[in-house]
Amino acid sequence: MVPLSRRTVLAAATVGAAAVGLSAPAARAAGAPASDQALKKIISRMSLEEKVGQLFVMRVYGHSATAPDQADIDANLKELGVRTAAELIEKYKLGGIIYFAWAHNVRDPHQIADLSNGIQKVGLEQPSRIPLLISTDQEHGIVARVGRPATLFPGAMAFGAGGSRSDARKAGQIAGAELRAIGIRQDYAPDADVNVNPANPVIGVRSFGADPQAVAGLVAAQVKGYQSAHIASTAKHFPGHGDTATDSHTGIPYISHTREQWERLDAPPFKAAIAAGIDSIMTAHIVVPALDPAEDPATLSRPILTGILREQLGYDGVVVTDSLGMEGVRTKYGDDRVPVLALKAGVDQLLNPPDLSVSWNAVLAAVRGGELTEARLDQSILRVLRLKAKLGLLKEPYVSPSGVDRAVGTPAHLAAADRIAERTTTLLVNKKGLLPLSRRTHKNVLVLGANPASPSLSDGPPTTVIGAALTELGFTPTVLATGTAPTQATIAQAVAAAKGKDAVVIGTYNVAAGSAQQSLVNAVAETGVPVVALSMRNPYDVAQLSAADAHVAAYSWIDVELRAAVRVLAGKAEPRGKLPVPVQKADDPAQVLYPIGYGLSY
């Protein structure tokens, strides 16, 4: 796609202002967003089809709104029945688009900005002339769609370890400014779940921790940071996904919390987000019988979304579903019923259904058949338009190349991320004062471990990043990637490589009892060479690795966290992080090995 010129951007922005009944001078002036009266006039001019479309936020393949690569055209035709984002918007009158790396939407900042501008241009060419709300999942840490050269921050649990609300707010402000510069105005972050279940397969380090009040404070801080950058923050996953043993992508999690437990454990972060002025809240595809005896998933539960969220908690902002393609919401009802039931429950935005044609037509038929009223749709559309107006989309829907250059991945932003990451690294074990490593006594270091990295989020595999960081600090590392399930041959190779080394650093990833990673650490430790375990996701790894001489929790395999952890290993930074979750004993989960707040220092 040819980038839009500044003149084109400004001209189109004026068109967007006219579409909502604002003069061009008024569109440029600072002040309150469009009034409800003005927004209701827009709604009154919309056809039923346009109203239905405004409720959907959809994926689409391609780096360009009008000229994607052939492979992405083929994928769009197969899944969506259209060739391009432009055709998708024209056919379904969409209210929003969600970006994914796997959909090839996010190659680099200028490409993303061009895609965003192309999408807005198509939206403003529709009869309703309403800009789209472009969104993504940019939680940071292990969930980030926009990669380098954008600034990448530690994930939520790392912030929990750092414990600084100021850092959480600063990160949200910087991340929000960078997203806004590339045309993304709604971020599905922060995660407000309280991770009280170490076996949680879907949340884990995406949560700030296991203490509801600590999580609430960090959630509120990050909401304020994001929204100070004039993008919509989204607290998720209501009413709380932190105590699940089932991944809602693949099944229906059941939460056994009583109403009192929910109030005490799950609710505080969402209440804090609402008090902080959160723009949107994402639903969870979980069943909580104490909140809805009918045992409908929360996404489809009127008692939960209307009864609790709207009426009891007083929230009147935008409610968006988690992806409607997830099994947690599809198991009980068909794809034609899910969107209708979600709207009846109190949802405003329907996110990424597996078959848009089925879902879109189901909502249309529900209105024509009387199951849903246009007035009900109008309630949600008004909330969505209020948000678009608040974010400035109705006045200035476009972004500029110069804005991208000024905001994305600047030296100041990258330095801030490095400083914040250093304050999150947690030292859990340090037998005989092994750490910090010294270049005089531990110069030759063997680096082993898993490589779970996403290429767009790093300079290379984690073991390579660790090795490069050690080299920069004057060590002489040898890197041997051993993976998450090393074979006996690989373990033997690692043991042979450890001989003659001064220390071994092993990056671990979700270590289970009796796993090959545990065997690797045990075998290398038996050589007598000092072993440092560096957990690159869950801090719970430490309970399985008693053979290690030292253990450091980094909470992610993302570069910024690994580099900070290496600086801690080398004594270039102090280990300041404290555990935001308890770690139970490996052989007795009822006993706590390391409590919340635990962390060693030098």
UniProtKB/TrEMBL annotation:
GO molecular function (one): hydrolase activity
Signal peptide from the UniProt entry: 1-29
Glycoside hydrolase family 3 N-terminal domain span: 48-387
Top-level EC class as recorded in UniProt: hydrolase
Alphabetically ordered keywords of this record: Glycosidase, Hydrolase, Signal
Catalyzed reactions: Hydrolysis of terminal non-reducing N-acetyl-D-hexosamine residues in N-acetyl-beta-D-hexosaminides
The protein's Enzyme Commission number: 3.2.1.52
Keyword Cytoplasm in record: no
Annotated Glycoside hydrolase family 3 C-terminal domain residues: 426-602
Top-level division of the source organism's lineage: Bacteria
Keyword Hydrolase: yes
Family stated for the protein in its record: Belongs to the glycosyl hydrolase 3 family.
Protein name: beta-N-acetylhexosaminidase
